[in-house]
Amino acid sequence: MSVKEAVLAALKELILPELQIIRQEQAEVKATLVLTNKRLDDVNAHLMDQSRRIDAIRDGLGARIDAVREELSTRIDDTNKRLDRLYEVIVRREEHHGLEVRVSTLEQEVSALKKGLAA
């Protein structure tokens, strides 16, 4: 056996088993990568579905919020009208009290005048 054949045989004995191990590990990494990509695709599909659901819910909530806002606006307007009416009633009561005082004063003055005329 020549030196060249001896070196080649030694290299085959050292490198070929290592090369076989590297190839096997590469195949395992490829298989793992395929499975990982499949899981990522599944997760992305799930996220897209959830996103669509969230969009639908958001649209529904937006409509409900608008309806509640409109109802509250109507109620606030009604309450403001009632407060305006209450203010009018309160002002009339104050005017009524003032008129009662004036009528009472006038009655006393008329009574005093009658007494003055009778005397």
List keywords for this structure.
single chain, 119 residues, mainly alpha, 1 helix, rod-shaped
Order of helices and strands: H
Taking all Cα atoms into account, the compactness measure Rg is: 50 Å
Unreliable stretches covering 5 or more consecutive residues: none
State the helix count: 1
Major pleated sheet: none
Task: State the helicity in percent bands.
Answer: over 70%
| Average predicted local confidence, pLDDT | 90
| Oligomer classification | single chain
Counting DSSP E segments of at least 2 residues, the number of strands comes to 0
What structural category characterises the helix and strand content? mainly alpha
Overall morphology: rod-shaped
Question: How far do the termini sit from each other?
Answer: 168 Å
| Strand-residue proportion | under 5%
